[in-house]
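Notebook, student rotation project (T.W.).
Task set for the rotation: take a protein with a known small-molecule partner, predict the structure of the complex, and write up what can be learned from the model alone. Partner molecule chosen: fe (ii) ion. Sequence and SMILES entered below by T.W., checked by me.
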Amino acid sequence: MTVVYFDSPMSDDERRERLFCGDLFVYSPTPQTLALVEFARQMTEEAFTPHFPPDAQHHLEGQAYVDVLAKLKPTFINHPRSKELVGAILDGLGADIGLTYFDVPRLRSMTSEYLNAGLTLQFETHRDTWFSAPFCQINWWMPVYDVVESNVMAFHPPYFSQPTRNSSRDYDYFEWVAHGRAAAATQVQVETRKQPELEEEIAMQPDIRLITPPGGIIVFSGAQLHTTVPNTSGRTRFSIDFRTVHKDDVAKGNGAANVDSQCTGTNLGDFLRVTDLARLPEELVSSYVAKVA
Ligand SMILES: [Fe+2]
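Predicted structure of the complex:
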């Protein structure tokens, strides 16, 4: 059974517990999520001017399009205002901001039948935990413009507790940071970087797709199997996502069960405390690595 909670008043502790069991949470837009959406829209519309961002793919040739994204995405990710607004969102949705750590919010784009590599890569079916995310990682996702069922994300809940054959054994986060990530802007038409992926056919249907208005936010465990569905909507989807961990979960080893992740390394060193952007204590990160190794 997978439960989808809408606008649940549940505490953050209880919410994390349910997320670790595979349940999903959806929240209506809040003043804080709308502020982040507005911030992303301003930046995106300026970058693609005079085109409306969801339609800009029909007006620009490949390299020009990628050049816009190559500038836009890091500017959004690294902007102090983005971090501030993520903190406000978490506070507004009941997270303990003294114990909650987030990684910088990503601005993602998924073009419709146009370019599929590097900065416009369509993420295949995966769990974030195949990419060295900790099992207590929680993902937060929201659309920036209206979305439809053919340009969102799909969840495959039966596989939350069911292992799949996948290539996560070949992935090491520390190696990726050193070599893979920097190469994204050089990949325009074809993706050559090695990413964890399924090594078997699975039952892709039925899946679950949650459609919210812009600024509505979907919360799910990093161990949840999910897919960016092939975008056939004719419009580029822009979305924002970020991840969180709670310090106590890291310390106590709370989190979703590991059914099939075999990667090494951890992204825990990237997380920043909401209150002061401090990183997790190094000894906590290294003891976590030792535990899951
Ligand atoms: Fe993901």
